[in-house]
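dude i think i finally got it to work??
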Amino acid sequence: MAKTISKPDANPILALILTWFVLGLGHLVVNGQQRKWLYTLGAGVVGSIACCIPGIVIGIFSIIDSYQTAERLKNGEAIPENEYSFVPLFNIMKRVDKEATCSRAV
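look at this
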């Protein structure tokens, strides 16, 4: 079973900035999601090498997800370590990470 994260002190703006400017570190440093950080970083690098556009899309989706996850944590929600908050990113990453979850996906 996946580890659950509860961080009421999570800062959504810091998560957004770190994810945007420092290799997606908002997932790791602010949100405490090491596995998600590794998978989104890897997918972004592979997407950028294969064709620049997929890497950019994953990067933008990752920024949105990091912010939304930090918001959820700040509001007192406990989430699984590999939970995605932004459904479009989850739809991409579930192909790579078979343990990815998203409570917002239909």
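Residues 8-93 form one domain.
im so relieved honestly
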